[in-house]
Each structure stands twice: as C-alpha cells, then as structure tokens.
Amino acid sequence: MVLKSREESVSSYDVLIAGGGNAALCAAIAAAKGGASVCIVEAAPKDWRGGNTRHTRNCRLAHDEANATLTGPYPVEEFWDDLQRVTKGHTDEELALMTLERSKELWDFLSESGVHFQPSLGGTLSLGRTNAFFLGGGRSMLNALYITAEDLGVTVHYDTRISSLEIEDGFFIAAETTRDWQTDTPITGRIEARCFVAAAGGFEANIDWLKDAWGPAAENFLIRGTPYNTGGVLRLLLDAGVQRVGEPDQCHAVAVDGRAPKFDGGIVTRLDCVPFGIVLNARGERFYDEGEDFWPKRYAIWGRLVAAQPEQVGHVLIDAKSFDLFMPSVFPPEKADTIEELAAKIGLDPANVRGSVDAFNAACIPGDFDHTVHDDCRTERLDPPKSHWARPLDTAPYYAYTLRPGITFTYMGVRVNRDARMVMADGTASPNLFAAGEIMAGNILGQGYLAGIGMTIGSVFGRIAGERAAQYVRN
Amino acid sequence: MTAIDLAALATAPQQEVARQMGVCNACRYCEGLCAVFPAMELRRTFAAGDVDYLSNLCHNCGACYFDCQYAPPHPFAVNVPSAMAALREESYARHAWPPVAATLFERNGMTVTLALMLAVAVFIGGFVWASDPAALFASGLEAGAFYRVMPHNTMVVIFGGAFAFAIFASMMGVIRFWRAAGPMPVTLRSLWRAFGDASRLRHLDGGGMGCMTENERPSDKRKLYHHLTFYGFLLCFASTSTGTIFHYLLDWPAPYPWWSPVKIFGVLGGIGLTIGAAGLLIERRRKHPALRSGGDGGLGQAFIWTLFLLGSTGLVLTALRATPAMGILLAIHLGVVFAFFVTMPYGKFVHGLYRTAALVRHAHEQASIK
Ligand SMILES: Cc1cc2nc3c(=O)[nH]c(=O)nc-3n(C[C@H](O)[C@H](O)[C@H](O)COP(=O)(O)OP(=O)(O)OC[C@H]3O[C@@H](n4cnc5c(N)ncnc54)[C@H](O)[C@@H]3O)c2cc1C
Ligand code: HEM
Ligand code: SF4
Ligand code: SF4
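YS: structure for the whole thing
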C-alpha cells in the first residue's frame, strides 16, 4: 500500500464555506437543501466552534403578528426606521430593505433547522417584541444548526483554517487549508469547489490590525468574542480584488469589566453600574457625563470614551445606596469603608479621588431619585456634569469596578449584491464568490448597532448565499 | 494585563456551585431551560442552603452544559450539571439522619452491595433454620406455600419495621435539608404543582429540546427509562399494598391468580422496574465524560442495580413459583427487598424526596413573586 502524503490531500465539493458561525451554517443548510455537496472549514476546534455566534442571545426579526414568544408586531417599516436611526443613513438601502423583508422568514427557517425560541424573561433590555431569543443562547442555536447540517450530509472540518485562496479575475477555483494549524505539525490541503462562501467573521481579534487603525492603545482592548476572527479570509479577498466596504477603524466598542479575559469574555463582563456612580480615569478625574442617558443607550459610546483615556482604563465608583440597582456582575467589586481606602485598592491616588468625589458630592442637587426614568437628580456647576441619577457618594461601603474597552465586532468587510455575490473593485459581481455574516455586515450596518441585527444579517445572507450557490452549481 | 479575579476555584462542592451560579446570574442565557435558572435569578448571593436547594432542583438534563459558552475549556469552567450532581450527593450525606450515617454515603456502592449480600444470606439461612428445610424447595402453587417458608406475620413485622425505619430516617433527612434552605410554608398549591412537575419530570427535558446525555443531540431516553423505573416502582408498591389489604381485610392470602390486582400490578411494575433500571444503566455508560459527576461514590450505580434486582428477582419468582426453586428465589427476593429498605435513607433513593422537596420550595417561591 502506498501511503499518500497527507500534505497533498485534495478534495472537491460543490460549495466550500469558510467559517463555522451562524452565517456559515445557514449557508450550508440552504446549499445542502438545494442539492449541493457542502464542506465547512472552521478554524476553531470543535469545543470553540461558532465564532461570535456562540455568545449571542437573540435575533431581530420583522413580523406582522405576535406569536408564542414575540410579544407584538414589528413591521418592516418600523425596523427600517430603527436601522436608519442607528446608522444615520450609512446603509445600502436596497440591501437593507431586502434583509428586513426576508428577516420575516427566519423564524420558520431557524425553527425548521431545530432552533428553539423562548420568551424574553428578565434582563435589562426590553426586546421581547422585536427580538427572538434563542432557548439556551447562541451556543444552543449553533448546536441545532450543526446537527441539521450534519444530517443533510454537510462535511465539517474543525481546527482547519483557510490559508490562501485561488481566485482568477473574480472567479473562485480552490482554497488552500491548514489543518491543526495551532500545533507544531500543521497539515496543508487543497479544496476545490465550484463556489466559495466567505462567512469567516470580522477581524476584531487581530490586535495588529486594530493597532493600525487605533494606534498602540489597541493593545489594551479586550475582545468580547472569539480569538479566531482574525480577518484572514477578509484580507485574502481584498487582496484578490474584492471591493471593500467600511473603514478599518470602525468597530463596535463597549465598556466592559476590566478584569475580563482577553478573549471570549462574552456577555457576563458587561457592567451596568455606570449611571449610578461616577467614573474616574487613571489620574482620578471624571471625564464624561455618566448620567446622560439610560445605559443600554450609552454603553456603546463608553467603549470609545475609555479607549481615549490614559492606559485605556476607567474606574466606576458607587456607594451602598446603589449596589442593588443593577444586574449582578460576574467579578466581585473592590470594596472599602472609605473613599481613600478604595482608591488605594484600585491603585489611584487617594487625594485625587477624594478631590473628585468631594467636588461631585458638592455639586449634586437634591431631587427624587428614580432609576427607571430620566430623573431630576443632577449636578450643578460641575464639568463634566452628571445629568441624571446623581446622588452624593456618602454611604459606606464603597465599591469600585474597572472598565476597559471591549470590542464586539468590526465593520469593514466586502461589498456584496442582493444575491450575496461579492462585488469586485471594478463593480462587476463575481459569479461564484459569496459572502455572509459579519464579513459583509458593513453593507447594511455602516455604523451604530441595533441589538440582534448581527444574527439577522448573517442568517438572511447565509441563506441567500447558500441558495444562490446551489443554483449556480445546478446550472 | 488582566487577571481573572473570580473567587478562587474551590473544591468544596457548595463553593463551586456558588461560583458557577455567580457566572450564570450575570449571563442568564439558560433561563428558559429549567427551574434552576429562574430560582437563581431571585438571588444575588448564594448561601449554603441556597446552593443545596438549587442543586436538588437540577434534573441533570445536561442541556445547560452543552449550551454554555463558558463550559471548559473556557477559563470560567462552567459545568452546572456536574457541579450540582457532586453537591447533591454531598448534600444527601450532610443531611442524613442519624448524622453518623453520613459515612454510609462515602463508599455507597460497597455499603449497598454488602447490605444486599448479607440480607440475602440471612434470609436463606433463616429459612433453613426456622422452617422445615423441605419447605424451601416446595412448589409455591398450593395455598399458603409462601407462608410455610416464612410466616406472614413474621414477614409483616420484619418488612413493616424496615420500611417504617426507612421512611422515618429519610424524612428526617429531608426535613434537615428543607430547614437549611430557610423557613418556607408548605402550601397545598405548591405541593400540587411540585407533584405535577415531579410525576412528569417536567425539568428533565432541556426546556423542551430534550435532555442531552452523550452529546448535544437531544434524546428523551433517560426520561422514558426513569418513567418506567418510577412508575414500575410505584406499581410494585401498589401490588404489595393491595396484597396486605387482601390478606388482612379480605382474608385472602397469597398466592393470587394472574388477574388479581396484586399480580397485575406486580408483574407490570416488575417489568417497568427491570427495563427502566437496565435502560438507566445503559444511559449512564453513554454519558459524556464531562457530565459524570466528580464525587460519584457509586450512589447512582448502586441504586439502579438494587432496583434492577428488585424487579428482576420479583419477576423470576413469579415465573418460577411453581417449581422447587420457589423457596430459594423467595429468600433472594426478600433479601433484596430488605436490603433496599434499610439502605433507602442512605443512598440515591433520597434523590426523589429531595428533588420533590426542592420543587415544592420552587413552586412556592415562584407563586409568591407573581
Ligand atoms: C459578546 C457578544 C454578544 C453578541 N450578541 C449578539 C446578539 O445577541 N444578537 C446578535 O444579533 N448579534 C450579537 N453579537 C454579534 C454577533 O455575534 C455577530 O454578528 C455574528 O455572530 C456574526 O456571525 P458570523 O457567522 O458572520 O461570524 P462568527 O459567528 O463570528 O463566525 C465566524 C467564524 O469564522 C471562523 N474563521 C475565522 N477565520 C477563519 C479562517 N481563516 N478559516 C476558517 N474559519 C475561520 C471562526 O472560527 C468562526 O467560526 C454579539 C457579539 C458578541 C461578541
Ligand atoms: C421513588 C421513586 C423513584 C425512583 C425509584 C427513582 C429512580 C431513579 C434512578 C434509578 C435514577 C438513575 C440514577 C443515576 O443515574 O444516577 C434516577 C435519576 C433521576 N431521578 Fe429518580 N427516582 C424516583 C423518584 C424521582 C422523583 C420524584 C424525581 C423528580 C422530582 C426524580 C428525578 C430524577 C432525576 C431528574 C434523575 C436524574 C436523571 C439522570 O441523571 O439520569 N426521581 N431516579
Ligand atoms: S450555564 Fe453557561 S450559558 Fe447557561 S446561564 Fe450559566 S453561564 Fe450562561
Ligand atoms: S436541569 Fe438541565 S438545564 Fe437545568 S441546571 Fe440541571 S442540567 Fe442544567
């Protein structure tokens, strides 16, 4: 028997899909249902499969009527208004409207693919009308999609990365893959396919790339999701002449607990206490209005605010009065009986912190505290002011949490048309290069964010890419 | 640059469950899966009694392990089913009555095996010694044959006594468990709800997806086998109770014809118990390694084997009672029954009581927040 060198392993499929998250799986299921042979190449090991999708919780869907879990209608027009508001018009209207229209089909498509939904029970955001919550969260949703794909005969390679693409004049020929790429004995392979679907996420885990846009500050960013979204496929596509959408320095950055792990901290590193206290930088000074608006409307700007501070760090100080007002955090706060002691514990200069707290306390004017409305507890003659929920920090024990910028995702990606086909630099559409998910989300979400729309875009374009790829293969 | 500053990973099962509940409470993605998560959300901190209670609410369906984005190899290392299984077993020992009996949980497999062997041996020996050895090999078809081997009143005294002790000791344990989680009234409404949930094993189904044993593919087999076991057990119990009623109230001693309730309950129950226990044993083998609880001192294994023997020896006895093997089979079956009773408060049997008690608390708690 002749042992074939494993380096030379060559295989061929109708459709090759890069990535293993929501967009990739929706594409795989749609393509396989369309009769194509499908191969998924996922860079992560099985335990870590599914990119940022494993951290998601819900998906925003247009629907004309309430159902078992969605509490009321959410017409396309309202969805469109919401999208225009957050993107401030930075969206491709034709693609966006098509996405919202087709989001109506997702409930059935995902349900048929084994995904279960649940009513939104608790939580701080009230999204029960607009968003469908996955029972058991994103990883449960992914498990269902993987089972469905496997039952449809889809091949899945874990621990395998797309390392280069053979594209001629916008026409896909083959991909080079590297299996076990995280080990000392990586194995390269070649997969030929008649269509390629890029569903490999953004580049938010590529610190060097972030540094290009953000400077050295990016070293101190925490990545909320997977370490595997390093943008390798995106770079290969841009190099092969695919048109770019979005700017490299655009990313969704929120303020998260500074003690979160570098990657994959996910939802539990969220800190909801900023509106109830004051936020100091490394010098012990306040730098922004903590009570400008409700936290769900402000958490996304705090990522950038903290990123602009020295050492990219912020410290929230609250007192005993506010401790029970927000969702419990996964990391216990630092706690002390005096402000000075607390300052020392978090490594700030006690005198500076005392000064900032005294100035704030003195500026608070009495009012009726109510954290459910924009109340009248605010500061006077203080710069920066605190517009709501301002109450003196005077009741021990005092607590401190650390804030750091946490990157959720990046916006830069490849341009696509309504068939999910990539558009080349010269404006022509590629016949057999498709993209879905975060890698093309910038077409629709040029800026801002609407909770749950990442999954909507991934599922809608994943399905379209899969359907069109299967059609192309059949013809 | 950053440190994961969670409470240091503790080995004590209670601390580990409390730590994991801290992560879950900040996440809450699993809130639709079962009763544990809504109960957790009512708390911000987790005291000893809380974690004991939450662990006994968990039905070990496995869903929240396969669904968790913080499951190992994630550094947060969340594996709720396994942490709770370890704590459950530890909590049975901690609340056992009398407290010295806690040690019986440690090498439970050994304890139960010894009890089984000893009881069977004593019954065989007792029969030989106390009655006409020939009776041991007599066929059981003639009226009163069973009682020639062992007089009915002796049987009632021995088994009634063992059963009464088992119930008393188990209830003492449950009461200690209940008190540890703090005072709470027991209302008819919460009892009704809890019995409904327990009898359907409502929470052994991953919130509607089915439980997950081997991998993330849901399957309802464990629920089915448990129903066979549980209802099989109840039928066996009903068979014995009707037998006692027939004997004393209707003056109708064994053996009973096949169509009598005693026989029908007994045979159906025995079949359920045997198949159910065998199925549960198979499903245990299939379990994903991450779901096998760390501190399993053989509790589950010993309990299932006892139930399997209970059902199967009863069935064999029924099938062969017309043969000379009847006496010896009766001794074996009675030995198993006796060992089951005396080990009942000190093994996995109490899971049914603790879990039902936890469901009662949960029903009351949920009703009072609405
Ligand atoms: C903490 C957090 C919470 C979120 N919550 C929500 C939410 O509730 N609702 C919502 O709509 N959105 C949410 N998002 C955004 C959402 O995660 C993304 O929009 C969505 O997951 C994108 O799906 P995707 O399939 O395009 O990418 P991903 O799910 O990120 O998948 C990308 C895949 O590509 C693989 N990959 C990368 N490079 C390669 C390569 N070279 N070769 C092969 N494979 C590669 C990765 O391993 C990964 O499997 C959240 C994001 C985060 C970080
Ligand atoms: C008294 C009658 C009962 C009997 C004979 C019985 C029997 C069993 C057996 C043999 C097991 C398997 C043990 C293991 O795998 O470790 C088991 C597990 C279990 N039982 Fe029971 N049980 C009874 C009552 C109950 C009740 C009342 C409940 C619910 C409140 C319940 C819920 C469970 C659950 C959730 C499991 C875990 C399933 C698993 O891990 O496989 N049981 N039971
Ligand atoms: S088990 Fe995991 S996913 Fe579920 S609530 Fe807990 S931390 Fe969240
Ligand atoms: S019953 Fe299932 S979902 Fe609930 S805690 Fe236990 S294993 Fe997790």
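YS: worth flagging: The domain at 2-248+411-474 of chain A is CATH 3.50.50.60 (FAD/NAD(P)-binding domain).
IM: good catch. Also Residues B 30, 33-34, 36, 58-64, 80-81, 203 surround iron/sulfur cluster (ligand 4) (CB under 6 Å).
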